Amino acid sequence: MTTWEGNSYARSDAGIVAYQRRAGVALALADPIGPPASRAVAVTEFIRTAELAGLVPCFFSADDATRAAVPAGWRSLVVADDTIVDLPDLEFTGKRWNSVRSSLNRAGREEMTFRMTRLADESWGVRQQLRAISEAWVGDKDLPEMRFTLGTLDEAEDREVRLALAIAPNGDVDGFLSWLPVYGEGGVVRGWTLDLMRRRDGGFAPVMEYLIGSSAKQFSEEGAEIMSLSGAPLAHDYPPDAGIIAVLSERLAEALEPVYGFGSLHRFKQKFHPRYETMYLLFRDESDLAAIGTALTRAFLPDATLRQFAGAGLELVRGSKD
């Protein structure tokens, strides 16, 4: 995700922090990349870089290690829970896996085909189907596709990204997922994290359970350690003192739920019995929250117009275009 368009980089000997400049804020995308032992130094260097540039520093979707590394006095809010499935010895047995197992069995009866591939390796016809599915998914909505922590088919062109396809007997693609690599020490891929989820209207009904379940089986057989179903942004209950971030989250969630279904997506992921790792928004103090709220809105919806924001009830960003 750090390679995606729109990111700037704070580089030091301790690591790299990818961030976006939005509304006077340096909005860091998750945690620093680099040796775990250098985390605190990388965090300090990023904050220094942002403040020297006159930007408000903050981290979005940061983990506990980054939370421990920010200066004393910094505040935190829980923004999501990463949903992680441990893959070693994974088997869909027992009552609690009934839903996933039923989807896999039904797919067999209906002669669905699962294929793990890369976008660049697929035929023109398949690629056009994927484009059509994605365009239909957002084409009739009032807001454009979200960005920042969410990719599109453009990002899926990267050869390090894998696609999971569900192919109907007639050759139609009924749904697809994109999987981003999770790197460990030495550049080894230790797992995969979910990005795109798209389905064809009128296609195989439990296609998402089928795709995720089939992906989990393949990744496990390949020796991967984890499969992340990602955190559902804007689907978290904020505490009473969250202020403008809670207001922003509520308004975005209401406007985007018909498009992205973050609440229902969070519930759907529970079918795979993940463990959870907390993801935080880290910031200096409450006086920064108004600017951070505007920055997050613009990061998630960089292509939305003021008319679209106003139509969605997102007046918080009026007058700010970057």
Structure description:
Mean pLDDT is 84; it is low at 256-261 and 316-321. 34% of the residues lie in helices and 25% in strands. It is built from 10 helices and 11 strands. By secondary structure, it is of the alpha+beta class. It starts with 7 loop residues before the first strand and ends in an 11-residue tail after the last helix. An 11-stranded mixed beta sheet has the order 1-2-3-4-11-5-10-9-8-7-6.
Summarize the structure.
Helices cover 34% and strands 25% of the residues.
Mean pLDDT: 84
CATH class of the largest domain: Alpha Beta
Radius of gyration, in Å, reads 20 Å
Helix content estimate? 25-40%
The general outline is globular
**With helices defined by DSSP (H or I, 4 residues minimum), what is the helix count?**
10
Strand content: 25-35%
Distance between the termini: 20 Å
Major sheet strand order: 1-2-3-4-11-5-10-9-8-7-6
Largest sheet: 11 strands, mixed
The appropriate CATH architecture of the largest domain is 3-Layer(aba) Sandwich
The H-level CATH homologous superfamily of the largest domain, spelled out, is: Gcn5-related N-acetyltransferase (GNAT)
Kindly report the CATH topology of the largest domain. Aminopeptidase
Structural class: alpha+beta
Number of strands: 11
